[in-house]
């Protein structure tokens, strides 16, 4: 444990203002995971906010340097996680008790760069069957600019 404290102190001493801000937000979200506000470390690390509206789901994350790639724009893999999470949350919300949905296919088209403070993916069902679902996901900025679009297939299976 002493080694962890020493490493933590070193990171704080050597950290830029941006490093400290990212670390602080990460620690806030880790505390929220410990209290049950987040169900996974991934959702806590990204600061995911899930909202249900009219049977569909939206998932938002802050657009900070924590999710940026080496050219200082949101990483495509993070946008994929956001889209998959919105679509998967919707799929799982439609499963009957004792069943869950897992992604079997995800196809994404990146259209432009997200520039606003928050990035939100919306999901809606295209088709729901007994064993599979096809869901559409989209990321739009507040002003209406379309950032990415995706379709995903989800397999419904019994929970272990």
- Give a short account of the largest sheet: 6 strands, antiparallel
Indicate the multimeric state.
single chain
Rounded to the nearest angstrom, the radius of gyration is 18 Å
Shape verdict: globular
Q: What is the residue-averaged pLDDT? A: 96
Number of strands: 6
Q: What string gives the helices and strands in order?
A: HHHEEHEEEE
Distance between the termini: 35 Å
Q: Spans with pLDDT under 50 lasting ≥5 residues?
A: none
What is the count of DSSP helices, taking H or I runs of 4+ residues? 4
Sheet with the most strands: spatial strand order: 1-2-4-5-6-3
Which band does the percent of strand residues land in?
Answer: 35-45%
Class based on secondary structure composition and strand pairing: alpha+beta
Overall helicity: 25-40%
Features:
4 helices, 160 residues, globular, 6-stranded antiparallel β-sheet, alpha+beta, single chain, 6 strands
Describe, in plain words, how this protein is organized in 3D.
By secondary structure, the protein is α+β, with helices and mostly antiparallel strands. The protein contains four helices and six strands, in the order αααββαββββ. It has helices spanning 2-14, 17-34, 41-46, 76-93; strands at 49-53, 56-62, 99-110, 118-128, 132-140, 146-158. It has a six-stranded antiparallel β-sheet with strand order 1-2-4-5-6-3, covered by helices on one side. The longest helix is centred in the first third of the chain and has 18 residues, at 17-34. It is globular, with a radius of gyration of 18 Å. The two termini are 35 Å apart. The mean pLDDT is 96.
């Amino acid at each position: 444990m002493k080694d962890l404290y020493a490493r933590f102190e070193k990171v704080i001493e050597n950290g830029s203002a941006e490093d400290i801000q990212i670390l602080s937000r990460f620690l806030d979200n880790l505390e929220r995971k410990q209290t049950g506000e987040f169900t996974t470390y991934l959702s806590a690390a990204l600061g995911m906010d899930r909202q249900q509206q009219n049977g569909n789901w939206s998932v938002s994350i802050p657009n900070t340097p924590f999710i940026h790639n080496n050219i200082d724009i949101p990483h495509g893999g993070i946008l994929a996680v956001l889209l998959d999470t919105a679509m998967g949350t919707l799929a799982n919300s439609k499963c009957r008790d004792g069943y869950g949905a897992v992604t079997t296919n995800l196809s994404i088209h990146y259209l432009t760069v997200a520039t606003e403070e928050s990035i939100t993916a919306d999901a809606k069902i295209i088709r729901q069957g007994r064993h599979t679902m096809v869901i559409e996901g989209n990321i739009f900025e507040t002003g209406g600019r379309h950032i990415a679009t995706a379709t995903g297939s989800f397999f419904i299976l019994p929970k272990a």
